[in-house]
Amino acid sequence: MTETRGTGRAFVFGNNIDTDLLAPGHLMKLSAEDLAQHCLEAIAPDFAKSVQPGDFVVAGKNFGLGSSREQAAISLRLLGVGAVIAPSFARIFYRNALNLGLPALFCEEAYRIADGDQLMVDPVLGKITNKTRSETLSCKPIPDHLMAMVRAGGLIAHLKSRRGT
Description:
Layout: E1 6-12, H1 19-22, H2 32-36, H3 47-50, E2 56-58, H4 71-78, E3 83-86, H5 91-99, E4 104-106, E5 118-122, E6 127-130, E7 135-138, H6 144-152, H7 155-163
Parallel strand pairs: 1-2, 2-3, 3-4
Antiparallel strand pairs: 1-5, 5-6, 6-7
Helix pairs in contact: 6-7
């Protein structure tokens, strides 16, 4: 999501989605693009084929636990996921996501979103509008300095743009 707001469909998962589900360890020798095609396949075999650019991953608590592999966030970004929405994140996944240009939004009421719901997400205002259910949820806004990094495509791209290279 390089714009301030994004609209898409929700793909809902439970608690404790680990990095091995997002980027299976036994497939780490694949290219990033090929690895992304296996994202979440152990629990949602059609996810990589079904997700469209701008769609959202919505999950329960402790999203992204496990190893520190950046490929977990990279896979979601390569698939075009607009943001990950959850009540809590594993610390290293949260940092990797933002560093790689993938918004991660803390939303205590993520459980109110159902699979397939159409969402409009504004990470700057901290607002999720569920168009399917005609309700608005609050989330923790992503600070401006982190959104600047996300908009740039991640930390490296952000630093390069600030240096003029």
